[in-house]
Specification:
By secondary structure, the chain is α/β, with parallel strands linked by helices. The chain is built from 20 helices and 18 strands. Helix 3 packs across helix 4, helix 7 crosses helix 9 and helix 19 packs antiparallel against helix 20.
């Protein structure tokens, strides 16, 4: 059954086309993922498909008596309680609404007034309403934003069993790969359709790029031949048909369509050197405004190259912990110590700090000077073209605003990054660029995220806050924690197999601390070989050690190359030499850890 048919639809912005002459048919059983860089019109196309927005050109024909349910980024909730907002206008059973709200982390807020909810809570309630509405066509715009890992897992299962047609925009690559059967990519005004899920889309996109490069090579060779022919002189040309002359000129003038973005995303800014003390938490506890204990007596020290992910259910206190680390919130008890060299960049989830009425170029220049050519160049390197630089912040897409927020933070040259849900609203291209940047960035990173692909790529260790007052450190990152959960082990059991911090050991409820010697960072907790460790634990730690050695080796090679380039700059040579020495020490320790773990694994296999 055809649910909606779109023919030759075009939508524009004041400065350019979003997409043009897009034709698309969605039928029952279709699972469509819509991707594209920020600002290409993904949300606009969803609204056109849902009948919320009339196309400027082209035709949209909905199927007869097709019921459409949509999660729109711009939707507001009706007044009343959370339960009223979800069931308003629907014939849904109360128990069913309660069940879905509970799955999405809103089960404890059923009687709260909808107008008192935070932005993230509002989106979860709106998602529940969209899922509960009877529908033949379900359209979801970034449904995983503001969900915790359990909520995302449940949503995947729900969408996999949905029998109607599904169209969704999401940055979550796991969701795309599991749920979708067809991908639609908006690229420079065109819509490209790829059969299969996200993995098939990546291969098809790569094949398309290769084919385009090959076609350009052929065109270029033909153009050179025709150009040489044209230059042989008027006598030679006079004996040729006029159409040959016109065709040759057209071939020479033809150019391959430029890239969607001019170059790689520029994320490299100078980073001040960190001292021995970074950020330390000593016996830190926090209580929510409603009196609920979020976490108690957390102790850990960040090392200079920390890659820590904070995970846990919504409402467990993850953002609260980041606020405490940033010293924008005082803990209920305990102490936060900052090193004298620390400069924190805090990427907030809900409050970007951007003036919605300011122009983009004014945001970059700041309040104390007028924008100049240096700001324009910086903005261009962050994929803001000339038109976007003059746009007001409120006219930008959600992803463009997040990219602008990231740029202002990095331009301040921090050496410690606190990132609260940094992947929300970012397109996949920006997301991959951010992952590449964080992998080699010389400072410390602490990130709250529910994006599994992002965490697996960026994070070395995970701090798990369970929402019941306990916080445990898991060397090996998110994958190690998931492995443990899948085996049905308790959090207490996981703690005994390696919850010790890379910079802290815990004893009793207070968690006494000890500082790691300089040069002996990150995976020091993995070095001692314990006969009590299981083969799965050793395998997990070995994978983490391999990843760490590869990262340090890559950093060492980069620094060695920079030393060659800086041979005439004495101060830069000194700085790079010190950093290279420290990284070499860390690499030596990491290799030793890896060898000990490999020996332990061999011993377990022989036993």
């Amino acid at each position: 059954m055809i649910l909606v048919d779109v023919a030759d639809v075009t939508m524009t912005r004041p400065d350019r086309d979003l997409f043009r002459e897009v034709s698309l048919t969605v039928s029952t059983g279709d699972r469509l993922g819509l991707v594209g860089i920020n600002g290409t019109g993904k949300s606009t196309l969803l609204r056109v498909l849902a009948g919320k927005l009339e196309p400027e050109y082209g035709q949209v024909v909905p199927g007869r008596e097709v019921r459409v349910s949509m999660l729109d980024q711009e939707d507001d909730l009706p007044s009343g309680t959370v339960l009223d907002a979800v069931t308003s206008g629907l014939s849904t059973e109360i128990w069913e609404a309660e069940a879905v709200l509970t799955r999405l982390g809103m089960g404890d807020h059923l009687e709260r007034r909808a107008d008192t909810l935070s932005g993230g809570e509002t989106k979860r309630v709106a998602l529940a309403k969209a899922l509960l509405a009877p529908s033949d066509l379900l359209i979801l715009d970034e449904p995983t934003n503001h969900l915790d890992l359990d909520g995302i897992t449940w949503l995947e299962d729900h969408l996999a069993s949905y029998r109607g047609g599904l169209v969704l925009v999401t940055h979550d690559r796991h969701v795309l790969d599991r749920v979708t059967t067809r991908m639609i990519e908006l690229d420079r005004g065109h819509a490209h359709v790829h059969e299969g899920g996200y993995a098939h889309y990546l291969k098809a996109k790569a094949d398309r790029d290769v084919a385009a490069a090959a076609a350009e090579s052929i065109r270029s060779n033909l153009a050179r031949t025709e150009l040489a022919w044209l230059r042989r002189g008027a006598k030679a040309r006079s004996s040729k048909p006029k159409y040959r002359v016109a065709a040759a000129k057209a071939l020479v003038a033809q150019r391959r369509e430029g890239p969607a973005r001019p170059a790689d995303l520029h994320l490299e800014f100078p980073t001040p050197r960190l001292g021995d003390v970074i950020v330390e938490l000593h016996g830190v506890s926090a209580v929510a405004p409603d009196g609920r204990e979020l976490f108690r007596k957390i102790d850990f020290l960040l090392d200079p190259r920390e890659r820590l992910g904070i995970v846990g259910p919504n409402g467990a206190g993850k953002t609260t912990l980041l606020n405490i680390m940033a010293r924008s919130l005082k803990p209920t008890s305990g102490e936060v110590v900052w090193g004298t060299t620390v400069k924190v960049g805090y990427y907030r989830q809900l409050d970007s700090g951007l003036d919605p009425k300011a122009r983009v170029r004014e945001v970059v220049a700041g309040p104390h000077r007028k924008p100049d050519w240096t700001d324009a160049r910086l903005l261009e390197s962050f994929w803001f073209d000339k038109d976007a630089q003059w746009a007001q912040v409120h006219t930008l897409s959600g992803g463009e605003r997040r990219r602008l927020q990231l740029m202002t933070i990095l331009a301040a040259k921090p050496n410690v990054l606190l990132l609260d849900e940094p992947t929300n609203d970012l397109d996949l291209e920006t997301l991959r660029a951010l992952e590449d940047f964080l992998e080699d960035w010389p400072g410390a990173v602490v990130v709250v995220s529910h994006d599994r692909a992002f965490l697996n790529r960026v994070v070395a260790d995970a701090l798990v806050i369970d929402g019941a007052g306990t916080a445990l450190r898991w060397p090996g990152g998110l994958g190690a924690w998931f492995d443990q959960r899948e085996r049905g082990s308790s959090a207490a059991g996981g703690a005994s197999s390696g919850s010790e911090s890379s910079a802290t050991s815990r004893t009793g409820s207070g968690g006494a601390t000890k500082r790691v010697p300089k040069g002996d960072t990150r995976k020091h907790d993995q070095a001692p070989v314990s006969k009590q460790r299981s083969s799965s634990t050793v395998a997990r730690l070995l994978r983490a050690a391999e990843k760490d050695v590869a990262r340090l080796d890559k950093t060492k090679r980069r620094l060695e190359a920079q030393l060659v380039d800086a041979r005439n700059d004495h101060d830069e040579l000194v700085r790079l030499g010190e950093e290279l020495s420290e990284v070499s020490q860390q690499l030596e320790v990491g290799e030793q850890v890896w060898m000990e773990l490999a020996d332990e694994q061999d011993q377990l296999r022989s036993d």
